[in-house]
Amino acid sequence: TRRKTIGRGSSATVYAAMCHDSGETIAVKSAQFHRSEFLQKEAKILSSLNSPYVIGYRGFEVTKEPLNNGEATYNLLMEYAPYGTLIDAATKNGGFFDETRVVSYTRQILLGLEYIHNSEGIAHCDIKGSNVLVGENGEAKIADFGCAKWDEPEVTEPV
Q1: How many CB atoms are closer than 10 A to CB 87?
Q2: Taking the model in full, what pTM does it have?
Q3: Cα separation of 137 and 6, whole Å?
Q4: Is 126 an annotated catalytic residue?
Q5: What residues have CB less than 8 Å from 137, skipping those under 6 apart?
Q6: In which domain, by residue range, is 100 found?
């Protein structure tokens, strides 16, 4: 059950929703199916990741939305980050963080990047405050893998 809009980008909208089976609050990133190739790629990437510093993947679904003239909608289901983005958290804190929190967030973001680069061969390509979320326990979680790329090994031609 969708509750409220929590984010809006150029090609997708993110809603908070309640999962019927578990009662868990999740985030649902939605796009019209015919424009969802980037979201499907993001789902594939997120489904391969498992780190406390990367937003959690909960699945995907394709639905027909009555508010969208019955068109198919692709929905990426993710962990809900109740404190929003790093930008939101800084704004709520008077526009800045103390040194301890800056060090903590920086460490968590770097650990997340190390994991996705070294373990999974993925380059995020769009790290910024609005693409880092603050989780339930105040931890930084890398999100929005729409621009991410897999590091494919170079194929060299014999000389």
Answers
A1: 15
A2: 0.88
A3: 19
A4: yes
A5: none
A6: 2-150
Question: Beta partners for 78?
Answer: 27, 57
| 4 marked among binding-site residues | no
Q: Which of 21, 126, 144, 151 is catalytic?
A: 126
Diameter over CA atoms, the chain = 60
pLDDT in tens, 83-124: 999 999 999 999 999 999 999 999 999 999 999 999 889 999
Counting the structural domains of the chain, the total is 1
In a domain, 112, yes or no: yes
Nearest alpha carbon to residue 9 among 116, 131, 141: 131
Residue 128 DSSP one-character state? S
- Please give the mean pLDDT across all residues of the chain: 90
Q: What is the CATH number of the domain that holds 105?
A: 1.10.510.10
Alpha-carbon dihedral sign for residues 16, 20, 22, 23: positive
Question: pLDDT category, 69, cuts 50, 70, 90?
Answer: confident
